[in-house]
Amino acid sequence: MKTSKLTFFIIFFLFGLNEKSSSTALKNSHKSCNFPAVYNFGDSNSDTGAISAAIGEVPQPNGVAFFGRSAGRHSDGRLIIDFITENLTLPYLTPYLDSVGANYRHGANFATGGSCIRPTIACFSQFHLGTQVSQFIHFKTRTLSLYNGKTPFCKGVIARPNDFSKALYTFDIGQNDLAIGFQNMTEEQLKATIPAIIESFTIAIKLLYKEGARFFSIHNTGPTGCLPYLLKSFPATPRDQYGCLKPLNNVAIEFNKQLKQKISQLNKELPSSLLTYVDVYSAKSHLIIKAKNLGFVDPFDYCCVGAVGRGMGCGKTIFLNGTELFSSSCQNRKRFISWDGIHYSETANMLVANRILDGSISNPPLPTQNACKLTKK
Question: Catalytic positions, please?
Answer without folding.
Answer: 44, 340, 343
